[in-house]
């Protein structure tokens, strides 16, 4: 396993901090108001794991589902969703319902951009609360 040196690790941490300052989304997974969590659209797919984990932790700390959703626009009318959890929710089951898959704590799926923003996003363009 390759490890980052101090300078690259700091750079990556800074990139994550900058991404988390962007306007976020309040997401109802599969349109269910009982599974509300934080999401963030990004153009940096290499940060999806760390961003998802930060979002899930922040979501749980504010009485939402312990899930983070990272959204990446594929440019063809579809978005790639990357779900992470810091709790016991099986995100692979959620993604399987959308035609995706993964592991219980990290999974993904590709869905229609229109469907995602129309039926799942409760609120957009707000800033994440601090921890």
Folded structure, characterized:
- The chain is an alpha+beta fold and 131 residues long.
- Helix content is 33%, strand content 34%.
- It has a single domain, classed as Diaminopimelate Epimerase, Chain A, domain 1.
- The protein has a 7-stranded mixed β-sheet.
- Strand 2 (36-41), helix 2 and strand 3 (67-73) form a beta-alpha-beta unit.
- The radius of gyration is 14 Å and the shape is globular.
- Cα radius of gyration in angstroms: 14 Å
Q: Note poorly predicted spans.
A: none
The CATH level-2 architecture is identified as Roll
Percent range of helical residues: 25-40%
Give the DSSP E fraction (strand runs of 2 or more residues): 25-35%
Tertiary shape: globular
The ordered string of helix (H) and strand (E) elements is HEEHEEHEEHE
* Overall average residue pLDDT: 90
CATH topology value: Diaminopimelate Epimerase, Chain A, domain 1
Largest sheet: 7 strands, mixed
Helix-strand makeup class: alpha+beta
């Amino acid at each position: 396993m390759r490890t980052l040196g101090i300078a690259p690790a700091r750079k990556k941490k800074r990139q994550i901090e900058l991404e988390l300052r962007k306007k976020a989304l309040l997401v109802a997974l599969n349109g269910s108001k009982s599974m509300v969590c934080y999401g963030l659209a990004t153009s940096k797919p290499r940060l999806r794991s760390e961003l998802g984990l930060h979002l899930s932790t922040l979501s749980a700390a504010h009485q939402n589902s312990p899930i983070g959703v990272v959204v990446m626009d594929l440019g063809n009318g579809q978005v790639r969703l990357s779900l992470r959890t810091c709790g016991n929710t099986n995100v692979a089951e959620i993604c399987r319902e959308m035609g995706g898959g993964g592991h219980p704590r990290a999974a993904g799926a590709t869905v229609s951009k229109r469907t995602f923003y129309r039926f799942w996003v409760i609120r957009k363009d707000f800033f994440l609360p601090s921890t």
